Amino acid sequence: MRFVTVSGPPSSGKTSVILKTIESLKQRGMKSGVVKFDCLYTDDDKLYEKHGIPVKKGLSGALCPDHYFVSNVSESFEWGVKKGVDILVSESAGLCNRCSPHIKEILAVCVIDNLSGINTPKKIGPMLKSADIVIITKGDIVSQAEREVFASRVAAVNPTASILHVNGITGQGAYELSTLFADDKTETETLDGKSLRFSMPSALCSYCLGEKRIGAKYQMGNVRKMDVDNG
Amino acid sequence: MDRNNLLHEKFSDVLIEIPFAGDFFESQGLDVPQGSVAEFVNSLSEAKMEDLGIDPDEFLDNFVSFVEAVGSLTEKTSRIDSLKIIGGINKSGEQENFELEIKAGEVICIVGPTGSGKSRLLADIEWMAMGDTPTKRHIKINGSDPDKSWRFSPEHKPVAQLSQNMNFVMDLSAKEFVMIHAESRFIRDSQEKVDLIIQKANELAGEQFTADTPVTSLSGGQSRALMIADTAFLSKSPIVLIDEIENAGIDRKKALELLVGEEKIVLMSTHDPILALMGDKRLVIKNGGVHDIITTSDKERGNLVGLQELDQKLQDLRNRIRS
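Structure tokens for the assembled complex are given below, as produced in the milestone run.
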């Protein structure tokens, strides 16, 4: 089975892009499935079901969403194998911009939108910087010049990625993206033993363990302080 | 400069030869290196590297790729003299049976009902279709297959698209906006270009605006005028695709002349009879396929004069109501 990780900030259009791309893959005779990772709530699984796409939903709840992702991705992969899909897509949001679900030797896609502001590429970490394909959405809402400026800023932080514009509403560009999915012939047998492209954000402080009180004396473990007196 | 020089020479020396190299650091929110790039990366603390979200080796690779990619961008691009569209199939799978060669400076209009496949044709051209889109059309540039890498690097794409939507979301003045666009294309004499674009845009727009007007407060017509002037003078893309500019509030004739004057190939999807007759030819789209190719006749051009007079009358009335 082939596996693709799709990530991107909330509301950037991941689900729409995946839906349209899976439609195109279907026309090529390929069967796709989706694992949707979210935090507290999502309805997107129903959307996938409506399109007849096998879908598995995982909600991280009180846990760090990325640690939850990496703890469950291998089992999700096995689920995809059982469902008999040709391509399994994982969808997860990079909530703190420091997270990244991308795995070595697995096709990695990042979705960002033109409306998020031209400094956004600067602000997103490995989720964008280590992606093989960057999809830029909502291009129909802004001018050509803004699209170009945004794309060039993406190219500056990830010069090796293939950058594509996809319209999640009309599906323009989704056929082209499906070509990239179909052309990547990497068949994977298991994710066990594979490695993330970049480490997850490190955290182990008193707040991870349920502390609620504010103040230096309650803080233990991996704590970093701002320098408020200088600069 | 090879990889070794790029990474190990003093960065200030690298900058003399490659002025844009500093943009790589600026665009990631970093200071420009004092010593060499390799030294700079070694000096970053582990925590800083973590924050950047990138491995040191990957960072160096990215820097080299960036310099290579932008280097090829600032080189003069190869000229595009002709664009050829070779027909595929329509929605019912019937052959289109046509070949159309378009030369630099020509304007081709695309007409047909909504949903007939006009946008798909523009998308085929933008994607440089090689029989691998639903329409199975082929696009040839200067008689041969286009470079496949164009598909995935927006800055190398020979195609610029002017869409119906011209909203701006950036909080900048017109001048700053064009400047930032020029910088993203690594244009050297950017100040000159910016002044020229604002001046030309004002010639197209009904109402005047200044270089200091925020782009978010430009009217629809002014935005379009600015984008058309920007496409004509800043975008080096030799092919321009226009998706319906009718309700524009701009001088459409001048706009087309501006684009064609820069020796561009213009393809324009439209429902507007005036624009349709301004083209050298028009492609009639039906059921997802090119149904007919009509060369604009002398008689039609004669009618165009009448239509333009009518249009002018309406325009004058519009202005009278306004004032």
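Chain B touches chain A through 52 residues (CB under 8 Å). Chain B has 13 helices and nine strands. Further analysis is deferred to the final report.
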